[in-house]
Amino acid sequence: MFNIKNKVVVITGGLGLLGNAFSMECARHGASVVIADLDDKKAKDTIERIKKETKNNNVLFQHCNITNKDDALALIDATLKKFGKIDALVNNAYPKNKNYGKKFEEVSFEDFCENINMHLGGYFLITKEVSKIMIKQNFGNVINLASIYGFSAPKFEIYEGTQMTMPVEYAAIKGAIINLTRYLAAYLGKYNIRVNSISPGGVFNDQPESFVRKYSKNVVLGGKMAATEDLTGILIFLLSDASKYMTGQNLVIDGGWTL
Questions:
Q1: 3-class DSSP state of 82
Q2: pLDDT per position as a tens digit, 23-49
Q3: Can you list the positions of beta strands (E) in the chain?
Q4: CB 3.0-4.6 Å disulfide test: which of 30, 113, 136, 232 passes with 5?
Q5: Nearest CA-CA partner of 11 in 38, 37, 30
Q6: Contact call for residues 10 and 130 (beta carbons, < 8 A)
Q7: Active-site option among 170, 187, 215, 245
Q8: In angstroms, what is the C-alpha Rg of the chain?
Q9: What is the Cα–Cα distance from 215 to 213, expressed in whole angstroms?
Q10: What domains are defined for the chain?
């Protein structure tokens, strides 16, 4: 039931922290993986490493900006030419502008709108175009990366003493992605297309020690931030037939942080 061998999985942002782990795990489980991202140089090294470690040569890179319709169509065309179908789309990309990450009082209206358009709008665009193929196939699977901050308020005290904050755009975007997931699940279900989301807690990525310590105090399981491998299993579950009767759900993977 957990077999994803021979499934064709498109992963946007497939070169990033989570995307890299997702791409590797899908290839390890025998899927044909299409990595959609922007860094052509990094892609070459990543593809070679994935093929070497997994012994799976069905790994393709496609340069793609998910906010650009031409790029989205080129991604779909390249995938169909190479593999003939699209079983699943993993919306994992994290587009943002150069001013992203400021504190609330420093965020301009223009930056707020642009970042929502890039991230949420990008998920909408790529899903809309890929779903056209899935509707023709009469099957498909869309997995959106949301966040615990899409349904819970930040604990701002854990950011004190660092240059970090929890961006207001992020909360708005991830909350919208969770409900977009439900909308799409309801709308596309009649075409045998499932749509679910994953809401991870904080993932360790060399954040400041004080932040890691404060964050970890709120984690029930292990008192630590998530590692990327803590999230790959749930992706395989959602991609596989083990979850074939599940749609419109938001799966929270946070070690109990939001309890």
A1: helix
A2: 999 999 999 999 999 999 999 999 999
A3: 8-12, 32-37, 59-63, 88-91, 140-145, 193-200, 250-253
A4: 30
A5: 37
A6: yes
A7: 170
A8: 18
A9: 6
A10: 8-153+165-202+228-253 (3.40.50.720)
Catalytic (active site) residue 94: no
Residue 111 backbone class (left: φ over 0; alpha: ψ -120 to 50; beta: rest) = alpha
Outline where 138-216 has alpha helix (H): 168-188, 209-216
Angle at the Cα of 167 from the Cα atoms of 164 and 169, rounded to 5 degrees:
160
Q: What is the pLDDT of residues 50-83, one digit of tens each?
A: 999 999 999 999 999 999 999 999 999 999 999 9
CA distance 36 to 66: 8
User: How many angstroms separate the Cα of 73 from the Cα of each of 35, 44, 85, 99, 127?
Assistant: 14, 22, 14, 28, 11
User: How far is the CA of 5 from the CAs of 22, 29, 31, in angstroms?
Assistant: 15, 6, 5
Round to whole Å and give the CA distance between 113 and 110.
5
d(CA 130, CA 126): 6
Q: Residue 23 in contact with residue 49, Cβ under 8 Å?
A: no
CA distances to 17, 96, 160, 250 from 228, in Å: 8, 21, 25, 18
According to DSSP, the β-strands at 59-63 and 88-91 are: unpaired
d(CA 125, CA 91) in angstroms, rounded, equals: 11
Report the alpha-carbon distance of residue 240 to residue 251 in Å, rounded: 15
**141 token code pair:** 């699977």
Of 148, 18, 168, nearest in space to 93 by CA: 18
